[in-house]
Amino acid sequence: MSLKQNKMGVMPIPKLIFTMSLPAMISMMTQALYNIVDSVFVAQINEEAITALSMAFPVQLIIIACFVGMGVGINSLTSRKLGEKDYASVRATAEHGYFIATMLYVTIAILGLLTSRMFFEWFTDDPLIIEYGSGYLQIIMLFSFGRIYAQAGMSILQGSGEMVFPMIAQLTGAIINVILDPIFIFGWFGLPAMGVRGAAIATVTAQSISLVVVLIFVFKIKKSIPFEPRRFRLDPKILKSILVVGLPAAIMQALASVMLTGLNLILAGFSTTAVAVLGIYYKLQSFVFMPIFGLSQGMMPIIGYNFGAREKKRLIHAIKFGLGFAIIYMTVGMLGFQMFSREMILLFNGTDEMIAIGTKAFGIISLTYPLTAVSIMFSTTFQGLGEAHYSMFVSFIRQIVILLPFAYLLSKLGNIDVIWYAFIAAELIGVISVLVFFRHIYKRRIKSL
């Protein structure tokens, strides 16, 4: 489909949202599945191994924050410029996306080499956990180029309304990761058993293959956004436009890492098993949340395009439809955690102590899922409109201002089970905040369209 007849401006909204979101939802669910499988395999080694991965998770969230923020900025600007019919800026956005990706990779690789071991020594003096965790993290960070460059390419495609090619690339990486995990971890087919490091090697290998698939799509197959990196010239205006949306989105994601690091420190005061439980929870939670993030990926360019084209009716319809679907889906996810938390923990070779802590935690935290759906959908709206700083403010309020202080105060009661109620307080305040911000944005930018 040519740029001048982009489906985001003409296709009926419900069909458009499912057409664009379903591929992203499928690929994100697959990503969540291989994250769970990765941890399930590692858990078979011993409890120290799964604890090491749980401690590494906040750092991985920082890496994710970097490329997700970059991707959101590229996606949002691409779709808005398409709506405005500014095709020169669309091409420049793609070129600047790869420039930002290069800067991110160099920074992450250097930090991985210098700080991985130091990070684990902050949490524990167990030499086995430190050895497992630092080895895993160094590999993930040093070879993160596959994931970062792939995200830049996928965001370029998604911003133009193309969702199938990114799905194929992500599915390819996820399937390869699942296949390679047991081979490298346990030493199948004559290879040496590499344990936790094997899990990291499987991940970066799969990410690199996924990158190759993305580059083929961007440069050889999908040519509706032609660009020539060799003729790249840095344009401060384009760079700023990407970062204005991308940086708040990255900070918003990074706040989750700060929150998790703080929670890990609080839980470590009870036991390392509690830290492992929190890590397991976030792996499992991703299976519920990732499809909603896929929905967000599909909705963001729709919102940006129709805002740029001044199609108010279509814009509002998209927001309402996405919000309703997200609430229904997250309610189903909540019920799943309420009924099957014990079985979920047993997937990770859970001990009696892990089950006792985890069933309480999963049951309480999952009560917040319908509220979280509201926050995610309005945050997506803010990003699509180029107002990503509002999403950042909401995340900061939820995770740093409310959740961490509440969790710390509740931990002083000496009962680990009450700590999880901090999540409920955080989500309630988050929903109130996001509704107040949307009302303000609607009056200022949408009402007059």
Task: Give a written overview of the molecule.
The protein has 449 residues and is mainly α. It has one domain. 83% of the residues lie in helices and 0% in strands. It contains 14 helices and no strands. The chain is globular. It starts with 12 loop residues before the first helix and ends with a helix. The model has no long low-confidence stretch (mean pLDDT 84).
Number of helices: 14
What structural category characterises the helix and strand content?
Answer: mainly alpha
Overall pLDDT score: 84
Number of strands: 0
The tally of domains stands at 1
- Secondary-structure element series: HHHHHHHHHHHHHH
Cα gyration radius (Å): 21 Å
- Main beta sheet strand tally, sense and closure: none
Q: What is the distance, rounded to the nearest whole angstrom, between the alpha carbons of the first and last residues?
A: 27 Å
Low-confidence stretches: none
Kindly list the characteristics that best describe this protein:
mainly alpha, single chain, 449 residues, 14 helices, 83% helix
